[in-house]
Amino acid sequence: MNNSDDATWSFTDGDYPIRGWLKNNDNLILKTQALEARGIIYTPDYFVRKEVDSGKLVSVLSDHISTSNDFYLLFPPIVNRSQRLSKFIEFIFQEFAPESEDS
């Protein structure tokens, strides 16, 4: 939990200080709070995609959110990757790939 007063949310037109009764950087806790109608959360879209698609959560301020949720997958440059690592990499690319505007 973060109780400092220096928390900000980044939008396309700048950073804005936020205030509220709970400041937290644990996405699971934030999602739980949103599902219980306890406020607005700022979290990567891939983390709440199923809840938004099912109507349990509603996306707000979408037009003002930067889409640069960088995600890095680091692994050593192995000539012969194991099948397990290859499947994991494939899963990550499928699960976290940006959705196209057409879908």
Number of helices: 3
Characterize the biggest β-sheet: 2 strands, antiparallel
Mean pLDDT: 80
Tell me the distance between the termini: 36 Å
| Oligomeric composition of the shown chains | single chain
Major beta sheet, strand line-up: 1-2
Query: What proportion of the residues is helical, as a percent range?
Result: 25-40%
- How many E strands? 2
Principal-axes shape call? elongated
Describe this structure in words.
This protein has 103 residues and is mainly alpha-helical. It contains three helices and two strands, in the order E-E-H-H-H. The protein has a two-stranded antiparallel sheet. Strand 1 and strand 2 (14-17) form a beta hairpin. The chain is elongated. This is Transcriptional regulator LysR family.
